[in-house]
Each structure stands twice: as C-alpha cells, then as structure tokens.
Design a protein that fits this description.
CATH topology of the largest domain in chain C: D-Maltodextrin-Binding Protein, domain 2
Strand content of chain C: 5-15%
Number of domains of chain B: 1
Number of strands of chain C: 13
CATH topology of chain B: MetI-like fold
Structural class of chain C: alpha/beta
Mean pLDDT of chain B: 84
Largest sheet of chain C: 6 strands, mixed
Structural class of chain B: mainly alpha
Largest sheet of chain B: none
Oligomer: heterotrimer
CATH class of the largest domain in chain C: Alpha Beta
Shape of chain B: globular
Largest interface: A-B, 92 and 99 residues
Chains: A mainly alpha (285), B mainly alpha (276), C alpha/beta (461)
CATH superfamily of the largest domain in chain C: Periplasmic binding protein-like II
Radius of gyration of chain C: 23 Å
Order of helices and strands of chain B: HHHHHHHHHHHH
CATH superfamily of chain B: MetI-like
Chain lengths: 285, 276, 461
C-alpha cells in the first residue's frame, strides 16, 4: 500500500504553519535581538555584550543552580510518588474512582491561585501548617522566608499540584498491561512486591519515560508558581532562569531579556535532548 | 481471601484519609476563608465562620467595574477557540505522523519534540505579532496558545493513532474514499477518547494560563480571569476573603469541565502519552 | 404634576449634597469601588442642576462634557484623587474612568507594554524621575512646558518630570519622605529619645529589643519596602560626598568603592538582627496595622503609610512620629524626600484639549483643597505657595516640617539621575535579611545599575 498516497502531506500543513510562525520564527529572530540593546522601537547592535553582562551577574549562578535543583527534585518526586499513587488507585480498593477525581483536583486550580493559597498556609506565625505542627509539638519553620527552605517549599507545592497528571499517565500505563503477565507471575509464586517490581515497573516503562520527560522539562521551565509564591525572593534565593528572564523583561531590558531566553533554551536543549535519547534507548531493550 | 478483603478495606480507609488530608484540606481552607470578614480571614485559620459572608462573592464580581465578567467572557473565548483549533490541526497532523514513517515525518517529529522542550521566545513573538497586527487581539492570543500546545497535542494524537488498527483505513482507501473523507468519517470518530483528554488537559492549561496573556494580551478590555486574580493580589493584598472568593469563582468552570470529562481522561491517555 | 417635579428636584439636590459630604468624609478607600459607583450614579442625576448653578456663579472653568480614562496602580491612596475627580466632573464636565493596575515590577511591565502597544489610557499615573526616563516619554506623553500653569509646579518636582527641556507630568499627590516611623508610646515607656545619629538609633533598637519588642518592623513580603532604608539614606550620602549623583551617573564612582555610598549598605546589613521574625511574610498592609497599634518600635517607611494608617485607624496615626534616617553628624540630620507620582497625558489621542483642561484644574488651589479635604498630605505639596493644611498629621506638621524649614532636605537619588538598578528591591531584601554582606550587596547593585546604564546608552567604563 502506498503510504504517501494514502496520507497526504497537506494534513500536516495547518499545524506546522501555526507552529512555524508563532514558535520557530520568533526563536530564530531571538538570536538576532539577543545581540542588541532594544527598547522595542529602536535597537542597537552590541554583539555578545548582553551575554557577557548576563554571565557576570551573580544571580545567574543561583538561577541555574536553582533551576536544576527544581527540575530534578520535582521530577524525581513526581515519578516516584505518582507511581505509588497510581498502583494504589489501580488496586482493588472500592473508593478508587472518587479518589482519582480528588487527586486530580489541584490540577484544575490555576498556579497563581495555588500560590496564594500555599503562601497563606505557609505563613510563619499564622499559617495552618505551622499551627498543626505546633499542636503536635514540632517547632514550625518560616517556609518561604528561610532562604535555605524556600525553594523546597515551592518544590513541595509544585509536586502537590503536578502529581495528578503523572498519576493519570501511570494509571493509563498500568491499565494497558495485559492481565496475563500478572497471572503468570502469580502462578510462578511471585508475591505482591515481586509482581510490582518485575511486572508493573518494566511494563509501564513507556509511561514512566513520558512522566520523566514531561516533569523534567516542566521543571526547567517553571515560573508561575515561583513568581506567585516568592517572586524569586527572599533576595535571590528562589530565582530560576525563567524568573531572571522575566525580571529583565519587566525592567525594560528587552535585548538582555532575549539573551537570557536564548541561554535558557540552550541549557534546556543540552539537558533534555540527551535525556530523551537515553530514555528511548532503554525503552527498546 | 478474607485477609485480602480486610486489606482492601484498610486501603480504602487509609487512602481516603490520606487523600483528604493532603488534597482536600487546602480546598476547605479556601472556601472557609472566602466566606469570612476581612479581619477574620486575615487570621488564616481553617474554621468556618459563624456567619458566612456570601457577599464577598458579590463584591468580587463588582470590583473594578465588573471586570470579572469581561474576563470570563475573554477566557472562555480564548479557551474554546484555541482548543477547537488544536483538535482540528493536531488530529490531522498526528494521524499522518503516526502512519507514515519517512525522512520528512522523522524531521517533523524532531521539530515538534523540540517545541515541547524549549521555552518560547517572548519578545520576538510580540514583535512579530505587532508586525502582523494581531498583537493584543483575541485571535492573536488564540493562535499563540494553539502554537504553544501543538507539540503536546500532536504527541497525544500520534500515540493514540498507533493503537488504532490500520485495516479500516486501508479498506476505505480501496473503496475510493477521499483522504479528507476517510479522516473525518473513519478516523476521527475513533479518536474520541483521546479528544476528550485533549479537551480537558488543554482547556485547563489555557484557561489557567497566566504568563502568556500577561505578555501577549495586555489591556483591561482583554483581561483574562487569571490576570484579574493577579491584580487582586496587588489590590487586596490584605483581604484574603476576597482573594479566596476570586480563586473559588475562577476554579468552578474547570471543575464543571472536569466532571463532564472525568471518566475519559485515562482512556485517552492509555495509548496517548504512554506510547509517545 | 408640578408637585412631583419639585419633589424630584428637591430629592436630587438632597442626594447631591449628601453625596458631596459623603465623598469628602469617605475614609474607606479599600472598599471604595462600591461607594464610588454609587457616587457616580447620583452625580449623573443631579448633573444638570449643579452645572447650571455653577456656570453662573463661577465662570473660571469651561464646562464641556467629556470622558477620559486614567490608569493608576492600586498602591497609592485613591481617596484624594477621587475627591478631585468628583469635583472635575462637576466643574469641568469631565468624567474620569479609573482603571487600576498592579504595582511594583509588574506594574512597570504593564505600563511599558501598554505604551509600546498603543493601548495607554488618556491619563497615566506613574513615577517621576528615573523610571519616567525609562519610558521614553517623548514618544508617548504630552509636553506641558508651554502651558502657563506649569509655572505653579515646584522646581524640584518639575526637574523630576523634565527630560530634554520638555515637562511631562503634574504631581498627583503631596510629596513624601523616606524616614523612620517610631511608636511614641514605646519611646515613652522605655524613656528613649529621638536619635540624632545612627549610633543612637542602633542603641534605641537594642533597648527595644531588650524589652522583648520588635525593634524594627520588616514588611518584606512586599519586597519594595526593603529598599526604603537604602534610598532614604541618600541625604547622608550626599552630605558626605556632594558630587555623588553626578559621578555616579557618569560611571565614575560606584557604591562598592565609594565610602559614602557603601555606608548606606552597611546600615542595611546592620539592621538585620532587629527585624520581626516573620518579616518576610509580613506585608505593607500588615505593617500599617502593626504600627497603628503600636506593636513595633520602628518602621523604616515612606510617609505615604501615614495616610493608609489614617484611613484605617483615624487619629491613631498621631501615635506615630517620624525622624530622618540618621547619619553620623548630629548637627546635620536631613530628610530624603520622594516626589509624588505624576499624572501624564497620552500624546496619541484626540482628547488633548480635555487632558490639558483636566491637568490645569488638577493643579489649581480649588482641586488641591478638595484633595487635602479628603486625604491629608504626607509632606508638602509640589505646588508653589500652597500651604500645608492645619489638620495635617502630627508627624508631618511637627516632625517633618522643621527639616523643610531649615532646608535640610534632598530628593531621593532616583529623581536626580535616571540610573536606578531594577534589582534594588531584591538586593536590599537580600541584605537586610543577612543573605549578603554590605560589600556584596553594593557590588551587586553596581552590576545592576550597569545594565540600566547600558539600556540608557550611557557610556560607562
């Protein structure tokens, strides 16, 4: 059967046109503007000065470190926690349908709204979290004010919000595993733990790979939640690449901000493409 | 067998308790505080007020000349328009990308994947939109949202296509069905589960999007619901009751959408993201 | 029928009268959205009567109906503005629709984007000084330098809204100062005296801390509040090095290397142990509550907070005193003052005439009276020969006015040079919370200013 005749290239045109005009083209243009001092009406070409300026900045170091920490931790936690939740929600429990819905709830609330709520919950003197801790006799903490803790508090909130999508993907993956494998394993005398380790995990690897990739990329790009909860502060303690770029933009340094964007997508490309290759290669085995 | 039943019951109890603690309490907190008087709400406790003040909700609606109603209209338009376009363009593209494996589609797959990874270049996009005279217009915003969600949506459709047997299309082709007809009559109906997933996930993303309207759709007439919340944060930084009332109001539409499509989400994902 | 008409007329007049008194007495700006709308509705009803009455008695203002839009941030107290707007509607026939935007960095962003996209309101309330320069105003705002009434503007203020000989804005409110608020009750209780030097100030802080109270209130959840100490210390910098502003703009001196400049950052670093424990979760609004209730010894803040406190707590505001951020010389303690936000007119509309009409009215004595009748000033007005009202807050009348009388005042640096690093708030926040040392912060701020200099096209290095 002639695939070329059966599946026309024209079907690709609408999606690709939109994607090219509004995504690829601006990306290419950004390489030019990243080398200018730009105020939207005029620009002046300055070569690599913007990049030099960017790299000379103290906060960039913190930003890159935080971005990586944020991506790795949110991704890791989502991969593990979502798997456990998914296994639990695909087991024989009766309340699984309602629980599935409830777990999905946080995903329906906007990031900004979640930021407002958790900022209130984490208030050092009035917040519910510290009140509860106090009640059981554990000293509370200044969740968002302590510079060593703030980023982790945001990471926790991010996981709370994002674990649902990962869980849904896992559930889909687990449900598509043929029952035959479990039956075979049971006949071989495998207990619950062994079945989980030897059947569930290997067979939902594609799902796991999707989760890893989506969560990791999402983590590298995240901005909304951090902005709503701390605005990058205290000081620069929770600044990530995206918030630094945004701050330059808000200050009106459009050329500099675009340069930051270029650095950011180079960084993400350098990390994400090899990761994807690696995950795919393991999937084939 | 009896032991297993006990185990499951224990799981039920445990699960409900855990989920309640972690996922439900923040929502109760929001609702409780949205019904309090300003000073009481600022204490940030979780107790329900003795006299619930539903007037907070009315006040939120009235604020800034009923901006919230305009914002709802705008958000609904952007969400509906962009999700519709995403379904249209990405189902077609995903269909072809899944069925054909040659150099061209390989290339396109790569480009689409890169779109999932690299962040959009914001300033040049604005510059480009100004050139096209669609900056700060509703249709401009819709096109941007579509472009940004295309990679993820194509991924879902392409993955799901792989689970649909190719025989029906071949039969249709033999019968002399045109390609458009084959797609719209045979293939698209089979994509229903994944389309449901696409609708809920993308609608939530677009409706809850804050960053992109902030950049691409400035101006009060163009306010979206997330931007109203953001402005409220500046304006009512010490009126948690109004802030939470706004949060609840703008979450309800997505909750309704979720209740409609709830059962379908996992079905569409089955092959969609898993085989991506 | 006739009887009905008279009744309606009487009722309308009653409504108008009620509305006017209600307006000037209104202290609830927080929830003013509602009252404002009611006001507007009643004004419309009584409009024709009032207008006819005014036209005969007072022909100074031309009455012509028009509608203007105005964009402002939500952080300034709007009661005064609203009082003037109500009067403008009555006298000029100009209805002004107020639209609020976010403040801080996001507000800057909104203003810049709306200007660039041609979506600015007819009138725009925005900072004078360095931030104005960054807007590229000649493209967007009306040049007012040829209007005769511009001569009424105070020269310092005019300087802060003038770029290349074109003046763009009129003062929206009174000027204000960055100083140290102190609780008179706590000072009395502990027998403290208003400090004349930084050392005495720190000694007072120690005493308050030892008494188990918050020595300095930190409200750094709103990160801009962290920079007030740094910016408000400029009087002391200039006292030590009179050429600082000029050299700094020229790139010849840096905070990290200039003794006078560095001492400001040292002060920030020194205060870190005196703040309340939840200072990073406390907001500006919380701060107003706390100071009004005398729960903290000091708060380093802009005096605009006096109005916010007055709106919520009335006369409790007089329990607060203000002194200038102290330096080293007890004989030369001076106040750093902030120019008010300015109202700018959009150049690219067809309403230029109405905008100018409105602006001329806004700086008239009549409008200022209305303003002062609603919100008391946080410092002197930027209009020549317009005196502070007798009802002014004690802190303004007794504590601040002497500095003005003796000429011991200076504009904050951002009104003198366009170079102000946008990261100032975060850098200050990092410094007062002890994340960075004074030297590191100074260097960070220099690097931040370099970016602004590059954007402005200044030739540093």
């Amino acid at each position: 059967m002639d695939k070329k005749k059966m599946y026309s290239n024209w079907f690709l045109v609408p999606a690709l046109t939109l994607f090219t005009i509004f995504f690829i083209l601006p990306m290419i243009i950004s390489f030019f503007f990243s080398m200018t001092v730009w105020n939207f009406t005029d620009f002046k070409f300055v070569g690599f000065d913007n990049f030099k300026l960017f790299f000379s900045e103290n906060s960039l170091n913190i930003g890159i470190k935080n971005t990586l920490l944020y991506a790795v931790l949110t991704c890791g936690l989502k991969v593990v926690l979502a798997l456990l939740i998914a296994v639990f929600l695909t087991s024989g429990i009766k309340s699984k349908n309602i629980l599935r819905s409830v777990v999905f709830f946080p995903n329906l609330v906007s990031t900004i709204a979640i930021g407002v709520t958790f900022k209130a919950l984490m208030h050092p003197s009035k917040g519910l979290i510290n009140k509860v801790l106090e009640f059981v006799g554990i000293p509370g903490a200044d969740w968002l004010g302590n510079t060593k803790l703030a980023l982790f508090s945001i990471i926790g909130t991010d996981v709370w919000k994002g674990v649902s999508i990962a869980t849904v993907i896992y559930i889909a993956g687990i449900q598509s595993i043929d029952r035959v494998y479990y039956e075979a394993a049971s006949i071989d005398g495998a207990n619950g733990w062994k079945r989980f380790w030897n059947v569930t995990i290997p067979l939902c690897r594609p799902a796991m790979n999707s989760v890893i990739l989506l969560a990791f990329i999402g983590g590298l790009r995240s901005f909304d939640l951090i902005w709503a909860m701390t605005g990058g502060g205290p000081g620069f303690a929770t600044d990530v690449m995206a918030s630094i770029v945004y701050k330059q933009y808000a200050a009106g340094f459009y050329g500099l901000s675009t340069a930051g964007n270029v650095i950011m997508f180079l960084l993400i490309a350098v990390l994400a493409f090899p990761l994807q290759k690696y995950l795919l290669s393991r999937e084939v085995d | 067998m009896k032991k297993k039943k006990k185990c499951i019951l224990l799981g039920d109890v445990f699960g409900i308790l855990g989920v309640f603690l972690i996922f439900v309490i923040p929502f109760i907190f929001m609702i409780a505080n949205s019904l309090k008087e300003r000073r009481e709400a600022n204490l940030l406790s979780i107790e329900f007020p003795e006299m619930p003040m539903f007037s907070n909700y009315l006040e939120v609606f009235k604020a800034n000349n009923y901006i919230l109603i305009t914002a709802f209209k705008n958000s609904a338009l952007v969400t509906a328009g962009s999700v519709f376009l995403m379904i249209l363009t990405c189902s077609m593209a995903g269909h072809v990308l899944s069925r054909r494996k040659d150099r061209l589609t390989g290339c396109i797959n790569m480009v689409v994947l890169s779109g999932l990874m690299v962040p959009p270049a914001i300033m040049p996009t604005i510059w480009l939109m100004q050139g096209l005279h669609i900056y700060k217009t509703m249709h401009g915003m819709i096109l941007i949202e579509v472009a940004l969600q295309i990679p993820f949506t194509i991924l879902l459709y392409r993955g799901f296509m792989a689970t649909i047997p190719v025989e029906m299309e071949e039969a249709g082709y033999m019968d002399g069905c045109s390609r458009l007809k084959m797609f719209s009559r045979i293939v698209f109906p089979l994509l229903k589960p994944v389309t449901a997933t696409v609708i809920i996930l993308n609608a939530v993303t677009v409706f809850n999007d804050f960053t992109n309207p902030l950049y691409f759709l400035p101006g009060t007439k163009n306010a979206t619901v997330q931007l109203t919340l953001y402005n409220f944060m500046g304006q009512y930084s010490s009126s948690y009751n109004l802030l939470f009332a706004d949060v609840i109001i703008i979450t309800v539409p997505m909750l309704i959408l979720f209740i409609i499509f709830n059962k379908k989400i996992v079905d569409g994902m089955v092959a969609g993201a898993v085989k991506g | 029928m006739k009887f009905n008409k008279i009744l309606v007329l009487l009722l309308t007049l009653l409504l108008v009268a009620g509305n006017l008194s209600g307006c000037s007495g209104s202290k609830e700006t927080k929830s003013s959205g509602k009252t404002d709308q009611e006001d507007r509705a009643t004004v419309t009803e009584g409009e024709t009567e009032t207008a006819a009455g005014e036209a005969s008695s007072d022909s100074k203002w031309e009455y012509k109906e028009a509608t203007l839009t105005l964009l402002t941030d939500g952080e300034v107290s709007l009661a005064g503005l609203e009082a003037v707007l109500a009067l403008a509607k009555e006298k000029l026939g100009i209805t002004v629709e107020v639209e609020q935007r976010a403040g801080g960095a996001d507000g800057d962003n909104i203003v810049k984007t709306r200007l660039a996209s041609g979506d600015m309101a007819d009138l725009c309330i925005y900072n004078a000084g360095s931030l104005l320069t960054a807007l590229n105003p000649s493209e967007y705002f009306l040049d007012l330098s040829n209007e005769d009434w511009i001569a009424r503007l105070d020269d310092t203020f005019k300087g802060a809204v003038t770029i290349d000989n074109a003046a763009y804005g009129i003062p929206m409110a009174s000027s204000q100062a960055g100083g140290v608020f102190y609780s008179k009750a706590i000072y009395k209780e502990l027998g403290l005296k208003v400090p004349k030097t930084w050392e005495e100030f720190i000694a007072n802080c120690d005493a308050i801390k030892a008494a188990g109270k918050t020595a300095i209130l930190g409200t750094f959840s709103d990160s801009w509040t962290a920079q007030v100490l740094f910016l408000g210390d400029y009087y002391n910098v200039a006292a030590q090095d009179p050429n600082f502003a000029k050299d700094f703009e020229a790139g010849k001196t840096k905070y990290a290397t200039n003794e006078a400049g560095l001492s400001s950052w040292k002060k920030l670093a020194e205060t870190k142990e005196y703040y309340n424990e939840d200072c990073l979760a406390t907001t500006y609004d919380d701060g107003c509550d706390i100071m009004a209730n005398g729960e903290a010894g000091h708060w380093i803040m802009l005096t605009q907070a006096l109005s916010n406190i007055y709106e919520l707590y009335g006369d409790q505001v007089n329990g607060i005193g203000v002194f200038a951020i102290p330096g080293d010389d007890p004989a030369n303690q001076g106040l750093t003052i902030w120019m008010p936000q300015a109202i700018y007119g959009n150049k690219n509309t067809d309403k230029t005439e109405d905008i100018l009409r409105f602006m001329e009215f806004y700086v008239s004595d009549e409008a200022l009276d209305a303003y002062a009748g609603s919100v008391l000033p946080d410092g002197p007005y930027c209009i020549k020969d317009y005196e502070l009202p007798d009802t002014a807050y004690d802190a303004v009348k007794n504590d601040m006015q002497p500095y003005f009388n003796d000429g011991r005042v200076i504009s904050a640096l951002e009104f003198i040079t366009p170079v102000k690093g946008p990261g100032c708030l975060a850098i200050s926040q990092a410094c007062v919370t002890g994340q960075t040392t004074a030297e590191e912060s100074a260097a960070d701020y220099d690097a931040d200013c370099l970016k602004q200099a590059v954007q402005l096209g200044l030739n540093w290095e």
